[in-house]
Give the backbone structure.
Amino acid sequence: MDSAKVYFTNMRTKVGESLLVKLDRLIVKAGIKEIDFKQKYVAIKIHFGEPGNLAFLRPNFAKVVADRIKTLGGMPFLTDCNTLYVGRRNNALVHMDAAFENGYTPFSTGVQNIIADGLRGTDDVDVPVKDGKYCKVAHIGRAIMDADIIISLNHFKGHELTGFGGALKNIGMGSGSRAGKMAMHNDGKPEVSKADCIGCKICTRFCNQGAISFGADKKAVIDHKKCVGCGRCIGACSKNAISNNESSSNDALNFKIAEYSKAVLDGRPHFHISVVNQVSPYCDCHEESDAAVIPDIGIFASFDPVALDKACIDAVNAASGIATSILGDREHTHKLPNGEDHFTDIHPTTDWRTQIAHAEKIGLGTGNYELITVK
Ligand code: SF4
Ligand code: SF4
């Protein structure tokens, strides 16, 4: 397959010129003006950040993108769908509160926030997945499907189930309604290692499904009939006693994320931006954000979400890991020609390649890219 163009600017700034000015220059150079925005509804898919997490994208980035779209005649809004798990984003009321708390208000970004799948996460559209092998239909938040154009604005980081979280994760998983997220997760039900469990019960606080109980030995047990595979308990356990040892189920999740992304993007203009800063080991869905695993890299933009994710993966893996982060606790056993495979060192039961490879296979884009630097 031909390569796609990915545009990149680093985090350096000159005196008197903000990184936000560089972001606008980047997206213009990357071709955002080629899209006809006039009088079109434009969904800017974003993650507002779980309250407590400090690695999520600042709203300032969203304002730059929204302002550019308005200048081009579009009608942008910021959007995300509700979560499956316990937290402050699992219905539209608390989700809106969380967005405001994290600074995403019409006063700061100049646009409205819309929770795409409604009050309870049930307002969705069944979208056929062209060439889908794992999902024939994707359940997507209605407001996202009602939009004429999709822009993804992504914070690039690690993820405990998928290896990394970038454009495809933001679009595919993030646009799924409650039913969609359950369908994507349902191959991955974690297990508890009795040898490692100390019975602290912290994991139960993170399980929205009441799936974790305790036996006479005071060790956690997961009821797979109740578990929806959301993976929240995995990150919650400080003893690493919970894991999804079936790497095949993590692969299945990656395949489905690629297919959900295709359902969202097929037939509509789309454009993608990823900020590679504060690269935390876990998703911004966590109420904590562990120390960044590499130094900040920059901002990437492309029409091709697959090329964009691959460029970000390569940039992260080429960077030196920070010894005071979780990478300092890990064995560095996964090597690549261009560096170390930080994602697999951090989350050894995940394989980021499966998401990229399946996205390529179903025609969502290409992992081959030409990197163009914008000063
Ligand atoms: S959080 Fe971990 S150690 Fe604590 S009860 Fe749950 S599985 Fe066991
Ligand atoms: S037990 Fe299942 S449903 Fe509960 S937090 Fe863990 S993965 Fe999610």
Summary: The two ends are 28 Å apart (CA to CA). The chain has a mean pLDDT of 94.
